[in-house]
From TrEMBL:
This protein's name: Fatty acid desaturase
Fatty acid desaturase domain residues: 48-288
Keywords: Membrane, Transmembrane, Transmembrane helix
Domain of life: Bacteria
Amino acid sequence: MTPGKAYLSTEEIRPLAERSDAMGYWLVLHCWGTIALALALFAVWPNPLTFVIAVLVIGSRQLGLAILMHEAAHNALFKSRKINDLVGEWLCGRPILAELSAYRHYHLTHHRFTQTDKDPDLVLSSKFPTSHASLKRKFSRDLTGQTGVKQLMGQIMMSFQLAGDKDAMEAAASDFAQSFKAPQLWKSLPVFLFVIIAMGVIGDWWWGLAFWLLPYLTWFQFVLRVRNIAEHGATEQSEDPLQNVRTTKANLIARLFVAPYWVNYHLEHHMVMHVPCHNLPKMHKALLSKGLGGQMKLADGYGQAMREAGWRSA
């Protein structure tokens, strides 16, 4: 049963679940357009500040591509399953070394068994709350590229090990899915490299390394972890849809650098998973109108979500 049907009627859910091709194309265009604007900012005013801003914005848009691939995995980005798969795979997933089909299979299992023993994401959320020192180590590894390099090397090794072994590939898919990784790296690597080369052609030879590989290895890994923690870290390990997932308020700065495309409305997403991301704020208001605000797991911002996960501890 869809959890949201316990709180909202079919008549209330139906308009929220309406998909829009125009909005789907706009979101994909917006994501890549923001990446282009970040490059343009540095090109016009090349200095250390604009370099850092470009890296952070592009890293957040790499997460944005992952979010839009997630939308496609739910067939919520476009009305057509074919267009969802085509755009979600080639314009959203593969540029960040992700694979839509592997991710979809894993992710729907997460929705079916959220915060129970059968949830493939439980290994991520069950670690929280943790200590301040543990979170600091995790964030440090992310921001210095250690996490990204380790995962990339793991993907390379896994690709060699799984070559020609379909059963092993399918079994390994969930190991990478929590970070939107592709178990068969060779399928996505050419697209990833194409983006790097294209940036080098547009600007200086090093642009692709600085503005695609560097954000991918650093800021993308950091915001991906922050997103994971905010969504299910330090929530109830139960089947209560109001308490086993968290919605986090995000201001304009947070939406630019940490939480693009309404990813912060995660409780609402779990309520009815095929509601497009741009309608999640409306669903949030609908749930509040039912008087459920006091029962919902909410955080006033990502700072509060991280403190609940352990950042406040000594």
